[in-house]
Specification:
Elements: H1 25-36, E1 45-49, E2 53-54, E3 57-58, H2 73-81, E4 85-89, H3 90-98, E5 104-110, E6 114-120, E7 123-127, E8 133-134, E9 137-138, H4 139-143, H5 145-171, E10 175-179, E11 194-196, H6 201-204
Parallel strand pairs: 1-4, 5-10, 10-11
Antiparallel strand pairs: 2-3, 5-6, 6-7, 8-9
């Protein structure tokens, strides 16, 4: 959690807590409310959620408790906090914090699962590429945390490179951004059109949800 100024600059150090177990809506919102008490005043809220969002509700929960499926997160936070709220996929929000807004840009996030979004001249098209069939399973099976643990860092890095090549052939992106906690395990050689981005972008990108 982070409060930003009108021009998108942090007004505090970001707050972090462990995801509660079980990761139900009630438990997670309780954690959010506790953090809210520790931040400066704010007048609107942006939320990044690891799954599909439809009209402010969370439609999937691949890496959270299944009780999140169909949960009206936007409405619930507005009711509790008495503030306007916008909710989007977390990878899409992080991408907003990283992109330049020119050409075709794509973000992949490597963490518990694999998040993704693509942008055309700054306009976002959310993706769930992580659950798309790839090789014998899905991208997330190979590139998420379970894949890293199963295959080890060396093979995982080779799989990441193969996935990057596949996304380039599929989406013809001009620039790729890679975020998420497991970027620290990457051994990818620096490339002109690939940028490793900080998880802080997942907070800074929240401003973009209010541009229009």
């Amino acid at each position: 959690m982070l409060v930003l100024s009108d021009d998108g600059k942090p007004l505090q150090e970001r707050l972090r807590v462990l995801t509660p177990e079980p990761s139900t809506p009630a438990k997670l919102i309780e954690a959010l409310c506790a953090m809210r008490e520790q931040v400066p005043k704010f007048d609107r809220v942006s939320v990044g959620y690891p799954g599909v969002i439809k009209d402010g509700s969370t439609m999937t929960a691949a890496n959270l408790d299944k009780s999140w499926i169909g949960y009206p997160l936007q409405h619930e936070l507005e009711k509790r906090w008495k503030k306007p709220v916008r909710v989007a996929n977390d990878a899409a929000v992080q991408g907003y914090g990283a992109i330049k807004g020119k050409g075709v840009e794509m973000i992949l996030t490597l963490g518990t699962g694999m998040g993704s979004a693509i942008y055309s001249n700054g306009h976002c098209v959310p993706l769930e590429l992580g659950h798309h069939p790839w090789r014998k399973k899905t991208y997330e099976d190979y590139l998420g945390r379970c894949g890293l643990k199963k295959y080890g860092a060396v093979k995982w890095n080779k799989l990441v490179e193969k996935a990057i090549a596949q996304t380039l052939h599929t989406f013809n992106w001009d620039h790729l951004y890679i975020g998420g906690g497991n970027t620290k395990k990457l051994t990818l050689k620096p490339q002109r059109n690939i940028t490793i981005v900080s998880n802080m972008d997942g907070l800074l990108g929240g401003v973009a949800l209010w541009r229009d």
